[in-house]
Amino acid sequence: MKNILLVATVLILFISLAILFHMDKNVTPTELTVPSKKTSVKDTTELIAYRIPVKKEYSDTFYNAAENMYNSIKDVIANADGQVIIGEVNQDATGQNIQQRGGGFIDKMIELIQADGKTVAVKGNEFYVNAAKGADAKEADADVVIQVAVPAQTTVELCSTEAQAILSQENCIAIFGSNQTAAEGVLAANANLNVLGSDAGAGDVIGVGFDAGSIIKAAVQDGTFIGAVTQSPLMMGYYAIYALTAAANGQELEDVPTDGYWYDSTNMDSEEIAPNLYD
């Protein structure tokens, strides 16, 4: 049985390599590595660039969700008569990837709001409240409150319950779901409340997601979400093959981040974005 699994693993590896290198038959796996004691994936930038187009404007994974949301709600914030709420639903407060997404969104949103002369408070989940950088007001006095919710367990249903509690507030103007589970929870909550949309000036609550999947993609396509951030499965696979090859050659590797991409109804079918949007 072990021999069968080993053979299957080797076959999968060679098939993956064949797919990755079919565009240039002169490139071999060993050419992905650099003859030095310490190799970083960054050393292969030129090789990567012609295979998979990467546009730098999509690269700030933790921040572009906040930036794109803020562009849709800044006039509402500027003209508000009272306090407004921006919601965030995170599936947990323990996973580093979720911590970074949730925290990055909060920190960037604080920066953008304060740059326009408004004050901000963060409330809700203790981890995200304590990790937030730059909040300058108490909840009762803030122009904008970022309300962060984390469910007791990681399920769409419980994320939906948390999202409903945020979306039910009359002064909620926007909400962010920081991964597929959380974003689908936000959409499930909206199925009952019907408050999400793309026109903040007309009273719609602006929704932004993270990751892809058929439910989130459909919500972006029809304007329920103004957009979302997707990761790059293509580059993850590419770097995985690179790491295997370098490791087989006895070279040392470093961790390397992969790009994230903002997508909305105007670009989700483009050749840069569509390959990264799984169902």
Task: Write a brief structural summary.
With 279 residues, the protein is an alpha/beta fold. It has helices spanning 2-21, 45-51, 64-79, 96-115, 126-131, 156-167, 180-193, 214-221, 233-248; strands at residues 84-89, 120-124, 144-149, 172-177, 206-210, 227-230, 261-263. The chain has a 7-stranded mixed β-sheet with strand order 2-3-1-4-5-6-7, with helices on both faces.
Fold and architecture overview:
This protein has 279 residues and is an alpha/beta fold. The protein has helices at 2-21, 45-51, 64-79, 96-115, 126-131, 156-167, 180-193, 214-221, 233-248; strands at residues 84-89, 120-124, 144-149, 172-177, 206-210, 227-230, 261-263. It has a 7-stranded mixed sheet with strand order 2-3-1-4-5-6-7, sandwiched between helices. Strand 5, helix 8 (214-221) and strand 6 (227-230) form a beta-alpha-beta unit. Helix 3 (64-79) packs parallel to helix 4 (96-115) and helix 6 (156-167) crosses helix 7 (180-193). The longest helix is centred in the N-terminal third of the chain and has 20 residues, at 2-21. It is globular and about 65 Å long. The two termini are 33 Å apart. Residues 1-12 and 14-59 have low confidence and may be disordered.
